[in-house]
Amino acid sequence: MKCPFCTKVNTQVLESRIVENGDGIRRRRECKSCKKRFTTIEKVKGSVLWVIKKDGRRELFEKEKLRGGITKALEKRPVSIDLINQTVDDLERELLSQEKEEISTELIGKLVLKKLKKIDKVAWLRFASVYLEFNNIKDFEKAIKK
After folding, report:
1. Domain boundary assignment for the chain
2. Of 67, 112, 68, nearest to 85 (Cα)?
3. pLDDT at residue 46 greater than cutoff 70
4. Does the pLDDT value for residue 34 go beyond 90?
5. What is the reported pLDDT for 59?
6. CB 3.0–4.6 Å: which of 23, 88, 110, 134 could bond 129 by disulfide?
7. Residue 133 exposure: Cα atoms within 13 Å on the Cβ side
8. What's the rounded mean pLDDT across residues 79-96?
9. Spatial CB neighbours of 34, under 8 Å, sequence gap ≥ 6
């Protein structure tokens, strides 16, 4: 492992432990050259997911794009960043567990709506209004009644 401070490759692992969600290892390291300490997290590189858009285009799955949509829906709501991060991680894990290389935006949207409904109803409605393409107040009323 290359030291981020002096860029030498002579480092030693001082401590290793499993990351809290169990899908990685946190290692505390020390550079033998400059004696500075740093932390690395090792994760298994998952398979590549492709997202099939409504118009048929394919895009690589971007976790940050998912995080952005969820964060936008939860903006100014009493929900912690930790819960947002956990939700994004859970959704990514659920998508990967499908064991498919291609996932539709429809499936992603349904899974996000399901998670948001449990976390915050206002965020759920915000996300639904974009994902389900609400055009007028009646669309909001129908969603709320459901």
Report:
1. 11-43, 50-145
2. 67
3. no
4. yes
5. 93
6. 134
7. 2
8. 92
9. 3, 5, 6, 8
